Amino acid sequence: MVNLNRINILLLVAFWVSFFLNIQYANAQSLSLYTPFTKVTASPGDKIDFQVEVLNNSNVILTSDIRVNGLPENWEYEIKSGSWSVERISVKPKDKQSLTFHVFVPLKVEKGSYNLSLIAGNSLPIQIDLTEEGTYKTEFSSSQLNIEGAVNSTFTYNTELYNRTADVQVYAFRAQVPSGWNAIFKSNNQQVSSVTVDPNEISNITIEVTPAENAKSGKYEIPITASNGQNLSELILESVVTGSYDLKLSSESGLLSDHIRAGNRKQLKFQVKNTGSSVLNNVQLNGSAPANWEISFEPSKINKIGPGESQTVLLNLKASNKALSGDYLVDLEAKVPEKTSKVSLRVTVKASLFTGWLGLLIIFFSIYLIYYLFKKYGRR
């Protein structure tokens, strides 16, 4: 009887030892972690997301705490399943669960390779390579700092203001422009004098610079600053003024009125003058006349007019045969892509000679008819 009890005790002890050994074996060997990307490249301030699968290859339910080893100083992490933060996980036999492992790289960090491990029954080594050294400052930049244009044009610069700090920052703008010049700042198409930028975010700022009317040709440097009270970021914009575009269309006589008979043609001389400081290329001449009139310029296009120079053109007009006596407006224009000059010519239409003679004949015939009738029947 005693021997039987000893045997039962030994069997019971062997069972529990085997049970715990199996659990330890399962925990150590069957619960494993998998992510397809174990080495990534990132920049300071980045948030890196690792999609992780927790696999249970055993025949029992396994539960394990989840932790991170080797996390660098000032780095942060978060383990989530959906919207829930996870610290411990249970996986059914021959099943898997999905987690997202978020790693937050600080803004102020040195360039190099960083190694850490995600542990849940097994270890998942991860390497993060930083390709640049992090900063704790503001960056003010533009892809195009030099713009060329006429003195009467607006120079538009597209810039980026990058808040590379860990706090919300309010930046005030300032532009040092030459006398008579003007500069405005825009964010989201609204004129602003300051903007608020969240940590590690970029704000797109448009800067519009308008030269003075009398600005001479040349290159102008315009310092632009964005300051938050603690530090200041600066851009040097360059505006290259090439001259102004302007032209004037006028009649050679200086008058903008004339006369014509219905159905007749008339030719008038006009002048196109370059009143700007830049060469005018491909000057187009057009006109608009009343219905059934004919209008054209000769030539209809001027290839080039230098500053201060003039070019004479001919305006060909033909009034409609059915045009009634009276005043008519003819619209004329000379234009280049940068500028347009418009004038209106008042044309007075007189009756045609045929109509005049016909009217006289009708009058004479009417007088004669009255005289004849009076002479024939007046004595009765």
TrEMBL record:
InterPro entries: A-galactase_NEW3 (IPR018905), Ig-like_fold (IPR013783). It comes from the Bacteria. Residues 165-227, 261-335 form the Alpha-galactosidase NEW3 domain. Keywords: Membrane, Transmembrane, Transmembrane helix. Pfam families: NPCBM_assoc (PF10633). The keyword Cell cycle does not apply. Gene3D superfamilies: Immunoglobulins (2.60.40.10). The chain crosses the membrane at residues 354-374. This is Alpha-galactosidase NEW3 domain-containing protein.
